[in-house]
Design a protein that fits this description.
The chain has 4 helices and 15 strands. It has about 300 residues and is of the alpha+beta class. It has one domain. Helix 1 runs antiparallel to helix 2. The longest helix is centred in the last third of the chain and has 23 residues.
């Protein structure tokens, strides 16, 4: 490495080869190895809430399990949220509400349980490796369910991957089950859309599935991954929603050792993956060899002209 820097200094001093000097300066970071990656921190936003006579709320700031409950006059409400960060973030929500014996559809003055648990995680992900694209295996599991279609309830789960603006996602999956003045329950997973129908025996709705696909991602480009789940109840019902996406370099990649995945700090094993530099590729080694050859030619020419470095 010292010899390489000496050669650069020599070229700069004699100033007859500015393009050569610029090229050598550009290649030095590759010779020295890639630096560590620092991605934007993950954001966690949401809460769990349950109420009858004394509503309880917990705000969520990171991975863990958060539970709240309340009861009174024969009614009850409870919500539990579980957030995992290993190896990639996932969210699971379950909310349950019951009405009291004198409830008549939740009219004011009568006991009823209500819950809410909206939640969203956003984090950054980058696929490090030779410039270009790399196939990435995505497995995203989504689910939502409502146990009683006669109750007021919401159960939604979403998963997006986008570059720049969320309005134009590269990947988008969702399951939406809503009652009231909402559209019919529906879902779209891996580009397949369908309306959900209630179980004829129980009146319950459920939907979900796994988006298993190979996605062609740009290397050395920061993407945002957003996943959200939402449950809300009012009356006698249980609702649940969950979303769990994972990423890995596809098995079809010829040289998987050339690539690594960096994600936001605090997620999975990001403390390890963010410091990993891709191993030299064949193209990089060839480039270094070409520069070494050119350097040798110039050094011989300079010696022939009686100059030394």
């Amino acid at each position: 490495m010292k010899k390489a820097w000496s050669l650069i200094n020599c070229v700069l001093q004699h100033s007859k080869f500015p393009m050569m000097a610029g090229a050598l300066l550009a290649v030095m970071p590759m010779l020295a190895g890639a630096s560590s990656i620092s991605l934007p921190a993950a954001t966690y936003s949401g809460m769990v809430e349950a109420g009858v006579s004394n509503p309880q709320t917990k705000y969520v700031t990171g991975p863990g399990t958060y539970s709240v409950s309340d009861s009174g006059n024969g009614a009850s409400a409870s919500s539990t949220m579980t957030i995992s960060s290993q190896p990639f973030p996932s969210v699971s929500l379950v909310s349950t509400a019951t009405t009291g014996p004198n409830d008549s559809g939740g009219a004011q003055g009568n006991p009823y349980g209500n819950t809410a648990a909206p939640y969203q995680i956003a984090y950054s992900i980058e696929f490090l490796g030779p410039q270009g694209t790399v196939p990435v295996q995505i497995n995203a599991t989504l689910a939502a369910s409502v146990s009683n279609s006669n109750a007021f309830a919401f159960a939604d789960s979403y998963f997006n991957v986008f570059l720049g603006t969320p309005s134009h996602p590269e990947i988008e999956d969702y399951v939406v089950i809503q009652y009231g003045d909402a559209p019919p329950p529906n879902q779209e997973i891996a580009g397949v859309s369908q309306l959900l129908t209630a179980d004829p025996n129980t009146g319950a709705y459920s939907g979900g599935g796994t988006d298993s696909q190979v996605w062609l991602a740009q290397t050395n480009t920061i993407y945002t991954v957003a996943l959200s789940a939402y449950t809300a109840t009012l009356g006698n019902t249980q609702v649940a929603a969950s979303v769990d996406p994972t990423f890995q370099i596809a098995s079809s990649v010829t040289d998987p050792a050339d690539y690594s995945i960096a994600i936001s700090d605090g997620i999975g094993d990001s403390a390890e993956t963010t410091s990993i530099a891709p191993e030299p590729t064949t193209a990089t080694l060839a480039l270094c060899g070409a520069f070494a050859t050119v350097c040798g030619v110039f050094r011989r020419r300079m010696k022939a002209r009686g100059r030394s470095c």
